[in-house]
């Protein structure tokens, strides 16, 4: 795959889950008064942390499919007059 964003793979489709297939669940919520909370098995912290880390991996994969693929990291100094942000051609 080239870095121009063409020919990239589509994002993964969400899994179809039945309620009886779910063994453990962790939910992160934001309430109406802007408070955050975690709902899940709070007595089993290793499981809670494992499920949250898996959620971060899933979200990272989704974000990587949404970000433009034309971003090229620059490891050296830029030439004078170069604008290091914005879109090409604008």
Distance between the termini: 25 Å
Instruction: Characterize the quaternary organization of these chains.
Output: single chain
SSE pattern, N- to C-terminal: EEH
Q: Main β-sheet: number of strands, strand sense, barrel status?
A: 2 strands, antiparallel
- Rounded to an integer, what's the Rg over CA atoms? 20 Å
How would you portray this structure in words?
By secondary structure, the protein is of the alpha+beta class. The protein has a domain at 43-67. The chain is 24% helix and 9% strand. The radius of gyration is 20 Å and the shape is elongated. The model has no long low-confidence stretch (mean pLDDT 77).
Question: How would you sum up this structure in a few lines?
Answer:
The chain is of the alpha+beta class and 90 residues long. The chain has one helix spanning 45-66; strands spanning 27-30, 36-39. It has a domain at 43-67.
Question: How is the secondary structure organized here?
Answer:
Elements: E1 27-30, E2 36-39, H1 45-66
Antiparallel strand pairs: 1-2
Keywords:
single chain; 90 residues; alpha+beta; two-stranded antiparallel ribbon; elongated
């Amino acid at each position: 795959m080239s870095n121009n964003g063409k020919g990239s793979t589509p994002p993964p489709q969400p899994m179809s889950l039945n309620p009886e297939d779910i063994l453990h669940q962790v939910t992160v919520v934001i309430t109406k008064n802007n408070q955050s909370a975690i709902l899940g098995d709070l007595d089993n912290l290793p499981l809670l942390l494992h499920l949250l880390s898996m959620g971060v991996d899933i979200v990272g994969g989704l974000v990587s499919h949404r970000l433009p693929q034309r971003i090229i990291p620059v490891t050296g100094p830029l030439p004078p007059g170069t604008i290091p942000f914005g879109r090409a051609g604008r």
